[in-house]
Amino acid sequence: MASTPQNSLRVAVAGVTGYAGAELARILLDHPRFATNPPIFLGRPESEGGAAISLTSLHPNLSGLPNADDARVIPFDWNELQREGVELMFLATPHEQSREWSQQALAHNIRVVDLSAAWRLDTPAYRAIYKLEDTAATDALQQEAVYGSPELHAAEIKTARLVANPGCYATSVILGLSPVVRANIVDLSAGIIADAKSGVSGAGKAPTPGTHFMYAADNLSAYAIFGHRHTGELYEQLSLQPDQIQFTPHLLPIPRGILSTIYVRFTEPQTIMSLQALFDDFYRDAPLVRVRKSPMTPQIQHVVRTSFCDIGFQLSPDGKRAVIIACLDNLLKGAASQAVENMNLMAGWPQQEGLI
Ligand SMILES: NC(=O)C1=CN([C@@H]2O[C@H](COP(=O)(O)OP(=O)(O)OC[C@H]3O[C@@H](n4cnc5c(N)ncnc54)[C@H](OP(=O)(O)O)[C@@H]3O)[C@@H](O)[C@H]2O)C=CC1
Ligand SMILES: CC(=O)N[C@@H](CCC(=O)OP(=O)(O)O)C(=O)O
Fold first, then answer.
1. Does ipTM surpass 0.90 in this model?
2. Ligand 1 contact, 205 CB (< 6 A)
3. Which residues are catalytic?
4. Where exactly are the transmembrane stretches of this chain (predicted)?
5. At 29, is the secondary structure helix, strand, or coil?
6. What pLDDT is recorded for position 46?
């Protein structure tokens, strides 16, 4: 499929009633490749009495987008997906459900971009936090799954059957650190600190005591210290050992957006010019990463509701330490728009199509 780009693709979105699924619907309805071939939207309308419901009754903000007012949210059914000739599915569903459906989708010859963590981690010890069932079949599929970071793995994504879309925090820290870690200039023995803050939508639509308005509003709190589930993605994608990075997430009292502040020490003193060139060169061909010119650093208000990850840094006067800041919208570059970048690559279309 990737070798002969098609003009369009038959796609379906599972989990369209959720936060990430809603963003997928918005992007895909507005995507030029789907103007005459709109996506199929899957939900659990049984909670609405079993009948299909209209997409815009669920998400009134989508009304007026191409094909949106005629779109229905239908119950999940493999026969229906086959009848419709679906070629690629987005799974914006919980990890366990994604794990089951991605295997079934591949068996039905449907390629998958999975937004959950079901296939992100190769190392069983890092995956254990998700308590997913491992079998010989899932082990084989895990080997095949491609970590869906277009900036790092574009070539593999193009031909993949199963793409594991990265975690939101993980995307920001991995993109912020990759240029300096891959250049081998970081003193790993000194340890990297990644201090990240996220808006509340990162936790999904179901409120919990920790994300309830009364807890989150007017508040800022650290959580999952020494145990956040995204650390495995950092270890694997940055080839780090657990004692070489300390990642601490915080919950911000805003709806969406992530800002990660990353502290590194260098083995040799750097100059602002050399470091700027390193970041600029690394992301020269990355249409959805904006490298800021030091001393400018990214801010959440510059990325919210965009598909960009913004990256910037400042260097200490002695050139031995840098603070790197990476910023993105958790529902977009941290989830839905990154998933669409992956679909674009899988279909042989420009990575940023429909996103800028
Ligand atoms: N929120 C974020 O910033 C990010 C989320 N992700 C991942 O993306 C996926 C979706 O996240 P998000 O949109 O935030 O989550 P939400 O909780 O907002 O939405 C979850 C969606 O999954 C559906 N769903 C829940 N359980 C089942 C089930 N057993 N069978 C079928 N469908 C089910 C829900 O349907 P219903 O409405 O009927 O309950 C809903 O459509 C998750 O795997 C999450 O980890 C990844 C990166 C960032
Ligand atoms: C604010 C908040 O709660 N954020 C979520 C991360 C969301 C994400 O990226 O999701 P998955 O890795 O689960 O797909 C968390 O800390 O668990």
1. yes
2. yes
3. 168
4. none
5. helix
6. 66
